[in-house]
Design brief:
This protein is an alpha+beta fold and 167 residues long. 26% of the residues lie in helices and 32% in strands. A hairpin with an 8-residue loop joins strand 4 and strand 5.
């Protein structure tokens, strides 16, 4: 596996809808493995192919307390809840930018795995947020356009310090 360079905003590839994956082969598998390694090395919970300069509809996310790895190839959101929630998000392509984003609390997605097999999944709360963020990347939609309030690094440090004190 290899670490990939993360594309930083502004970059045209981040704002362009990615192409569907049509070849499920060793090159795709290697890209997914490299994306996962790159995501972990940069303390991310999700990464989309355009963020590593590949304009294809592929993303990797970690979900749940077990941090299960999920690969989303050609994902399609087929259902979302009417209930939404606002939470702070960040993005590997936007270093030091954090802000509140409103998203549905539930999502149902159809996607393919690295072999091309179709699957469907449902996700709630934080996991639903991560999946939606990465699928947005595949459509050239960036989270900075959805932010309703930004946070400074000092505010974030203070929030985490307060959480540590409460524990």
């Amino acid at each position: 596996m290899a670490l990939l360079e993360i594309v930083k905003n502004p970059a045209k590839i981040l704002e362009t809808k990615a192409a569907e994956v049509t070849k499920f082969n060793a090159d795709l598998a290697k890209l997914l493995d490299d994306m996962y390694e790159t995501m972990l090395e940069n303390d991310g919970v999700g990464i989309a192919a355009p963020q590593v300069n590949k304009s294809i509809q592929a993303a990797v996310v970690e979900l749940g307390e077990e941090r299960d790895v999920l690969e989303l190839i050609n994902p399609v959101i087929v259902e979302v809840s009417e209930d939404t929630g606002v939470d702070m998000e960040g993005c590997l392509s936007f270093p030091d930018l954090y802000g509140d984003v409103e998203r549905p609390l539930y999502v149902k997605v159809q996607a393919q795995d690295r072999t091309g097999a179709l699957y469907e999944l449902e996700a709630y709360d934080y996991d639903a947020r991560v999946i939606q963020h990465e699928i947005d990347h595949l459509h050239g939609i960036l989270f900075d356009k959805k932010i309703t309030r930004t946070y400074t690094l000092q505010e974030i440090e203070e929030m985490y310090a307060e959480e540590d004190e409460e524990q």
